Amino acid sequence: MEEAVPDQAPGRPHRVGARKIEFAELNGTPEHAPRRLSGITEFDRVAGGGLVRGSVILIGGDPGIGKSTLLLQVMCRLAGGARCAYISGEEAIDQVRMRAQRLGTAAAPVQLAAATNVTDIINTLDSAQGPDFCVIDSIQTMYLDALDSAPGTVGQVRASAQELIRLAKRRGTVMLLVGHVTKEGAIAGPRVLEHMVDTVMYFEGERGHQFRILRAVKNRFGPTDEIGVFEMTDRGLSEVPNPSALFLAERRGNVSGAAVFAGIEGTRPVLVEIQALVSPSPLGTPRRAVVGWDSARLAMVLAVLEARCGVSVGPNDVYLNVAGGLRIAEPAADLAVAAALISSLTGVPVPADAVLFGEIGLSGEVRAVSQTDLRLKEAAKLGFSSALMPRRPGRSKGEDSIRMLEFAEVGDLLPLFRDKQAKPVGRG
Ligand code: TYD
Ligand code: MG
């Protein structure tokens, strides 16, 4: 035990056993946490530039979205230069082996185990030969004897994670915990662990689509909002270094109700098609259905179009979809959404060579958004020749390789859809 330092200040009681904490200067050289790259760039970027020793990463996602496949691929890559273990509580060893064979990575020296007892697992990992990287698939199957509750309950999930985290910090092991996103109920989802771990990633995607997006929502060792894009193949996940091209691959030109949004995900520009369909409603109360965007924001854009521009969707159903299964959080998508809606209403396509971005305010003004240059550069790279965007005061034109059409009001979009003869196009 350390010696107690008495508090000398007059009138202050002396606290027995209390020590003084040491303060440090703010201005010092930070110790850089050593990082390990898996070589899967889309994964490493989301991790903040590699995996930090002793860190605990939670990878959440719907069952069947591809978490086990992703982590097995990551482990196989890391196994070249580090000790890697994959502990499955869901699948038998043979099932994991068969997956590795399908992925073509069965030769990697990853140690496999099928286990669910956390005390046994920790006892095994906590040795000099213990792994540097360990996957626990999934945390919902793990349990501690000491607790009466069943695996998957909040108590078991929390306590099991706590033990594994303690081991990771003590040994410097990188722990990757899989957490299934579950419906409300007795089963505890990844949310109950988010505050305990260093990094939280979600693996997302639409079931029918081949794209999968890995997104960091919390990262003590790097930025959040980074995404990694993967394509599902029958030989596992392959990286998509240029997501814009992929998201726009199935785009059909000259169709009404579609607009290309120049967005930013983390540090990367991503172009994606926003599709709107306004169609007569068979119901008394028309529907508003949104996939991949915020439905409250759609309601706002509709209200602004009606109140400020006299554009009304009337008693029609309104559907909005972000093509490719991407989920967009940026308000910068407002202008593209508005254009897609007007286009669907009028039957006039949005100019096929244009991208759009800009936030819309309640008075109908088009507001500036961040990272304009990055958006324009990506659009030019993918062959777009114009951008419908907010005003940029003080910028000289002509220095970008793309024609910039600046809008102060969302209503200024309307002439684009008015003057042309509507073609007999399929809606949406
Ligand atoms: P899996 O990794 O088991 O999902 P999770 O661990 O999130 O529940 O993947 C689900 C199924 O999809 C599985 O049968 C394998 C298949 N799959 C592919 O065929 N290719 C892929 O690239 C991925 C990611 C999955
Ligand atoms: Mg799995």
Describe the structure.
The protein folds into 2 domains: 35-241, P-loop containing nucleotide triphosphate hydrolases (Rossmann fold, 3-Layer(aba) Sandwich); 246-392 and 400-417, Ribosomal Protein S5, domain 2 (2-Layer Sandwich), CATH 3.30.230. It starts with 34 loop residues before the first strand and ends in a 10-residue tail after the last helix. It is globular, with a radius of gyration of 26 Å. The protein contains 10 helices and 20 strands. With 428 residues, it is of the alpha/beta class. A hairpin with a 2-residue loop joins strand 12 and strand 13 (268-280). Magnesium ion (MG) binds at residues 67-68, 90, 137.
Brief summary:
The protein has 428 residues and is an alpha/beta fold.
Query: What is the CATH superfamily of the largest domain?
Result: P-loop containing nucleotide triphosphate hydrolases
How many helical stretches? 10
Number of strands: 20
Shape assignment: globular
Main-sheet strand order equals 5-4-6-7-3-8-9-10-11
Output mean pLDDT.
Answer: 89
**Which regions are unreliable across 5 or more consecutive residues at pLDDT < 50?**
421-428
Can you tell me the CATH topology of the largest domain? Rossmann fold
Radius of gyration: 26 Å
N-to-C SSE series? EHEEHEHEHEHEEEEEHEEEHEHEEEHEEH
Helical coverage, percent range: 10-25%
Work out the oligomeric state of the chains in this entry: single chain
Span from first to last CA? 73 Å
